[in-house]
Design goal:
The complex is a heterodimer. Chain A is mostly helical. Chain A has two domains: 6-175, no CATH class; 181-460, no CATH class. In chain A, 74% of the residues lie in helices and 0% in strands. Chain A has 20 helices and no strands. In chain A, helix 10 (179-213) runs parallel beside helix 20. Chain B has two domains: 147-352, 3-Layer(aba) Sandwich (Rossmann fold), CATH 3.40.50.1110; 361-530, Gcn5-related N-acetyltransferase (GNAT) (Aminopeptidase, 3-Layer(aba) Sandwich), CATH 3.40.630.30. In chain B, strands 10-11-12-13-14-15-17-16 form an eight-stranded mixed sheet, sandwiched between helices. Chain B has a seven-stranded mixed sheet with strand order 5-4-3-2-6-7-8, sandwiched between helices. In chain B, strands 1-9 form a two-stranded antiparallel sheet. Chain B starts with a helix and ends with a strand. Chain B is of the alpha/beta class. In chain B, helix 3 crosses helix 10. Classes of the chains: A mainly alpha, B alpha/beta. At the A-B interface, helix 1, helix 10 and helix 20 of A face helix 1 and helix 10 of B.
Chain lengths: 461, 533
């Protein structure tokens, strides 16, 4: 079930919240667990065996957590077992397809592998949990239901934010749930819904429309317009989803971590990755970068550490070649910044903004195309000084698309800035803001009823 | 009450109002999803395809013990609408009536042959002693056509009516259709095409620009300009309706075109398939009616509308599909539309000829030769020369022909608009071929077609020759030749009789034109027939 679907907004969420609020505090985790199981089931409807996989994962990780704590002398072994278990499953599902295509095998069909919902995010959360227990940052969770409620909780199970057990443990065991949490949570939820339904949906449609033409038949201007639309789409889609998750979490009494901080206002790629998908960056920093030595090592080792982080980041996002290239591209840019140009970007903010205005769409180009041929075609289109080959773009295609979508492109560009958040901060708590929220809600639902629900883009991970 | 409580209540109230406004929208959508397929205002009465009166006659062929119509041994070969052949002995021209009962299966293994009424009646309804062909109208589905290039001038009087796929053709045609008119828009259905105003324009030129004729209704457009051919591709935007409902609307659209453009040929194009991935996506999102299966059902009904005299049906899916019968995913970005590049390549498709006949329970396929067929044709040529006196070469002379020469021969026919090489296959096995080309290189001979035909000895005497020859003549007529000629060797009485039955007459001989290795001679008989314009 997608958060921006009518089923979720009008059926699941109201019914769940009714049950949740009615229950006494001690029972809330069970209700949360029950609701999350139901939510997950609707998500894996076509492959119910994945629900069993999820249950297995919950039980195994819970047992491992306890084992690490109980047998602390062998905790490294248990931690290793946990890493192998979680990442092993992740690798299998992610790369079986690639293995099949390289070796002409039929692993996917013989094992009936269907990519489980949220496995990339949840395996990271599990490993973080086990690592934290192993390093005595927190106690292991003794109650299976509480652990399951945290692991499977439906606000984060699809695509994060990647929550840390050590941080959430307190609220897991006791949280305030009152009218205030509902109201504040609802405001955030609708704000995110607006991002997703009003902006991401339409810009995504523009992107698909251009893709349908075929990149070999698109003019350079339209190619740039399309990739800008894609950049906006991916931001509003994912940031919107994260805001909705945080809002739901609030309604349930949880404080979920911030995942986006107007990343498109960054002045360097280094800054960007501290403001985009923050929980992922934090995870990589805490569990890969720092264990490898972080930046307290010699220069060569530092470069190696960063390379490791970015290669893994790339392949975490997808198993096709373009994701690896994307990770490497980001690594190269970060290296360039770190050793050469960052100081200039920081000094002259206008330079930084222009630089990022170019780099952000370019980096997303590598991200957007899983088909290498299309990737090549689009790059050729983006840079008209490259040899173009035979091409018959439709005359003024960019104008046509601009006229159709400027209502979303312009507000999209404006909403990338801090402006909406600034307004939100200024007006939150006033009646005006609540009315604005209600209006956003109405328009979002209206637009959802008009088009099919757009499966959350990051959900494929 | 505390101030905070009041504030909270006000907030909740505001949210409740928002929810109340949106609730009817949401419930509307839910109710729609529960309904079995959205109704788009189509009438749902069952549409009966009128059956040919002969469909119901019992078999009456006492002199044809091999007639398998009623025989219990071949129950598997006849579909239920298979008719008998009572009219073997008639010589009156058969008027091809409306299509026979529709084929609902998506593959056609036996199809009835047409005996189209031509102005020269007797030639087409010759008594065929060995086959038991029926007189009903053909129902070609899918396998209607192979492809022949045509000159752009062919489209100067063409009108394309359709939905977003036709828009794609229009926009991507890069000069190939800039003389044809397009009446298409995203979302068009048959019903909308009849009622609404859309922009009519010419196809895009090589710069992507296109000249617009303005926004108007179809009726206005048909009144404004005379079209010789009207291509229609609609259906995908109303796939949620009932199949008969969609078909009814397409029929009404076709009738409207006939009403306002009575001389035009109508070509109804079968709708393009989706890719397997797009189909799965639609189903997953709840649009369970967007399937290739339903598309095929609509296409089958469309195919049944064709009479091949004024209403034609073509299926371009052959060119775009992968073996599973779904659209090739490499050709599409979104699974529903070909990319511009593949629209352009698809545009090369147009004239198509391929026929499937039922011959005594066997399937006879006549199709255009392709370069790949050189490998079948060469040994055939070599063998057939050895089998008979009636061809031009001795067997050993044929041995020297190479595959390249044969390929060249095939190419000279496939790439030429006024030549054709048709292969005949019985039950999938190559049986023989026929060909025609212009009688000479110069303009002065270009109005004459020269025919060649030969079958493997095993396959003679079955009626294949007649079908093949009849087909060739039809193509010759369509190409606009004024006359057809051939050379037949003296002594080949069976062939001579057949040619005479098709209206050829001897106009001359070259005495002793062939000298055989055994010392005997045979004349070459020259036969000609004029084609009605």
């Amino acid at each position: 079930m997608n958060f921006n679907s009518l089923e979720f907004i009008f059926i699941f969420l109201p019914m769940f919240l009714a049950a949740y609020y009615v229950m006494p505090a001690g029972r809330r985790n069970i209700v949360l667990l029950a609701g999350s199981i139901l939510f997950y089931l609707t998500g894996v409807w076509n492959a119910p065996q994945n629900l069993l996989l999820m249950v297995l994962s919950v039980i195994v990780n819970w047992l491992l957590g306890i084992a690490i704590e109980r047998f602390c002398l062998q905790r490294k072994i248990w931690l290793c077992a946990g890493i192998i278990f979680n990442f092993g499953i992740l690798f299998l599902y992610k790369y079986a397809g690639l293995y099949d295509s390289l070796t002409d095998g039929s692993l996917v069909s013989s094992l009936k592998l269907v990519f489980p919902l949220g496995i990339s995010f949840n395996s990271f959360r599990a490993v973080a949990y086990l690592a934290d227990v192993s390093h005595a940052k927190c106690f292991a969770e003794d109650s299976l239901t509480d652990f399951a409620a945290w692991y499977m909780m439906f606000p984060t199970v699809t695509a994060g934010p990647i929550t840390e057990y050590s941080v959430m443990r307190k609220e897991l065991h006791g949280r305030t749930v009152d009218v205030d949490s509902f109201i504040k949570g609802f405001r955030d939820f609708v704000f995110g819904l607006g991002f997703k339904a009003l902006l991401a949906g339409q810009l995504g449609a523009m992107w698909s429309g251009v893709c349908a033409i075929g990149w070999d038949s698109v003019s350079s201007a339209l190619a740039w317009l399309a990739i800008i639309a894609y950049s906006l789409y991916i931001y509003f889609d994912f940031a919107g989803y994260s805001l909705m998750a945080i809002g739901i979490g609030r309604m349930l009494g949880f404080t979920l971590p911030e995942n986006f901080r107007t990343p498109y206002m960054s002045k360097s790629m280094t800054e960007f990755w501290r403001r985009w998908h923050i929980t992922l960056g934090t995870w990589f920093r805490k569990h890969i970068y720092i264990p490898l030595g972080g930046n307290r090592v010699g220069r060569v080792r530092l470069i190696f550490n960063l390379l490791a982080v970015w290669v893994f980041t790339g392949i975490w996002h997808g198993s096709t070649l373009n994701f690896l290239l994307w990770g490497l591209f980001l690594f190269a840019v970060l290296m360039l910044e770190k050793f050469v140009i960052k100081k200039y970007l920081d000094k002259y903010s206008w330079l930084g903004h222009i630089y990022m205005a170019l780099l952000i769409p370019l980096s997303w180009t590598l991200f957007a195309f899983t088909n290498m041929r299309e990737l090549g075609e689009s790059i050729v289109r983006l840079f008209p000084f490259l040899p173009q080959g035979e091409t018959y773009p439709i005359w003024h295609d960019w104008l046509d698309y601009f006229l159709r979508y400027w209502k979303y492109l312009i507000p999209g560009l404006v909403c990338c800035t801090g402006l909406p958040f600034y307004i939100k901060k200024k007006l939150e708590g006033t009646i005006v803001w609540d009315i604005i929220i209600a209006v956003i809600f109405v328009f979002s639902v209206w637009i959802i009823t008009k088009m099919d629900a757009d499966p959350f883009m990051y959900g494929q991970f | 009450m505390k101030k905070e409580t009041i504030r909270s209540i006000i907030s909740l109230l505001i949210f409740a109002i928002g929810a109340a406004v949106t609730l009817p929208m949401a419930t509307g959508v839910f109710i729609d999803k529960l309904k079995p397929g959205p109704d788009i205002g189509l009438d749902t009465e069952e549409w009966d395809f009128p059956t040919d009166p002969e469909d119901t006659d019992p078999p009456e062929t006492p002199d044809n013990p091999s007639d398998t119509t009623a025989s219990p041994e071949n129950p598997g070969t006849e579909p239920e609408d298979r008719t008998s052949s009572p009219s073997d002995n008639t010589t009156s021209p058969e008027d091809t009536s409306a299509p026979s009962s529709d084929v609902t299966t998506s593959t056609v293994t036996t199809v009835h042959v047409t005996t189209e009424s031509k102005t020269q009646a007797p030639t087409t309804v010759a008594p065929i002693t060995t086959s038991s062909s029926s007189q009903t109208v053909p129902v070609y589905f899918g396998q209607g056509y192979a492809y022949k290039k045509v000159d752009k001038s062919f489209f100067a009087d063409a009108l394309f009516i359709g939905d977003s796929r036709t828009v794609g053709i229009r926009n991507a045609s890069a000069g190939r259709f800039d003389n044809a008119v397009f009446f298409a828009d995203i979302g068009v259905s048959a019903a909308k095409a009849m009622a609404n105003k859309y922009e009519a324009s010419y196809g895009a030129d090589t710069n992507g620009k296109r000249v617009s004729l303005g926004t108007m209704t179809l009726k206005d457009l048909l009144a404004k300009q005379k079209f010789g051919k009207i291509y229609i591709m609609v259906g995908v935007n109303e796939l949620g309706g009932s199949i008969t409902g969609i078909t009814n609307n397409i029929i009404k659209l076709k009738d409207m075109c006939l009403q306002y453009a009575p001389d035009a040929k109508i070509v109804i194009e079968c709708n393009l398939h989706f890719t397997a991935a797009a189909e799965k996506n639609y189903i997953a999102k709840g649009s369970t009616w967007m399937t290739n299966d339903r598309m095929n059902q609509v296409n089958a009904k469309i195919a049944a509308l064709a009479d091949y005299k004024q209403i034609f049906c073509i299926d371009i899916n052959e060119k775009y599909d992968i073996p599973s019968g779904t659209f090739n995913p490499d050709y599409s970005g979104d699974g529903v539309h070909p990319t511009s590049k593949y629209y352009r390549e698809g545009i090369l498709i147009l004239r198509i000829e391929k026929r499937i006949y039922d011959l005594n329970g066997h399937t006879l396929t006549l199709r255009n030769a392709e370069k790949e067929d050189a490998e079948i044709l060469l040994p055939y040529l070599k063998r057939v020369c050895g089998e008979t006196r009636f061809l031009l070469r001795e067997a050993d002379e044929c041995q020297e022909m190479t595959v390249e020469q044969e390929e060249a021969f095939i190419s000279s026919h496939t790439e030429n608009d006024r030549a054709c090489l048709v292969l005949a296959e019985l039950d999938g096995v190559y049986a023989g071929n026929a060909s025609f080309e212009t009688a000479g290189r110069s303009r002065r001979n270009a109005h004459r077609a020269e025919i060649g035909i030969a079958l493997y000895a095993d396959y003679t005497g079955m009626g294949i020759g007649k079908k093949l020859f009849s087909f060739i003549l039809e193509l010759i007529g369509k190409c606009g030749f004024e006359s057809a000629e051939l050379t037949v060797v003296e002594g080949n009485t069976r062939a001579i009789h057949m040619y005479e039955s098709f209206g050829f007459t001897e106009t001359g001989r070259i005495p002793k034109a062939n000298k055989y290795d055994d010392g005997t001679y045979a004349d070459n008989i020259f036969m000609v027939r004029t084609m009605k314009p």
